[in-house]
Design brief:
Length: 123
């Protein structure tokens, strides 16, 4: 799988993803740091990459429908710390490996992972 890390995800997460077999770039690698959400979303679409982010705007399926993206993974740590985000990355990697399907939104929180599919209506 191909991934792109948003600027709010620690860069160490890229190595964790690569170790798990992902091809991973960061917005810093591509000069997209500071880009607005639509620009970042369009880059992920054009490159067929799964977006890994802490930006809750990407959890809005009306604005970012899962059917239009390879996938979106939004991390929601209990506290916004590097340590907690990296723990969530480590925790979700085996789940992604076992249950991955394209065109889904994954919300990763301490203690649970929620998945919203492309065919679910935006209410």
């Amino acid at each position: 799988m191909r991934a792109k890390l948003d600027e709010n995800v620690p860069v160490e997460a890229a190595e964790l993803l690569r170790t798990a077999g992902w091809i991973c770039d960061t917005v810093h690698d591509e000069g997209l740091a500071g880009a607005d959400d639509p620009t970042l979303g369009a880059a992920c679409q054009a490159e067929a990459r799964v977006l890994f982010t802490l930006d809750l705007d990407f959890a809005d399926i009306r604005a970012y429908p899962p059917s239009e993206y390879v996938g979106i993974v939004v991390f929601r740590p209990a506290e916004p710390s590097r340590r907690q985000v990296l723990q969530l990355v480590v925790r979700v990697l085996p789940v992604l490996a076992a249950e991955w399907a394209e065109h889904q939104l994954w919300i990763v929180e301490p203690g649970r992972v929620r998945v919203r599919g492309a065919n679910e209506p935006a209410v």
